Amino acid sequence: MNGNTPYAGVPGKTPAGKRANNDVPDLSPEQKESLRDSITAIATLTREFLPDEYVVGSKVADNGSGPQAQVSVQPPVGRPVSAGFQPGLDDFDGNDLETHEESEVARGLAASAAMQVKQVMGDDITPTAR
Known about the structure:
Blueprint: H1 29-49, E1 55-63, E2 66-74, E3 81-85, E4 92-93, E5 96-97, H2 102-121
Antiparallel strand pairs: 1-2, 2-3, 4-5
Helix pairs in contact: 1-2
């Protein structure tokens, strides 16, 4: 029933009768490129931390609620893990995305993916070496 109301949108930002996508940040082409570069850097670093059996992917989408970026890791066994964010105009300094956390996010994704494998495998595996 809520989807049929003319008051849909971000509370306090979208006036009655207005479309919710008026609240969506409109990024310049340079800002979109900066966002893609940042996500690509996170995916590349994540691949460096993991063996080849892990599949790492990234995507940038611009849907009705604004630009969204996501990096996902599919471990050889277990559930996939992902990290994503939705930047706003205040996250950019001119045309460059203000983030210096790429390596931290990549390490966290790699650790989470490795933990998925460990949880699925358990302690039943005999180590091949000591």
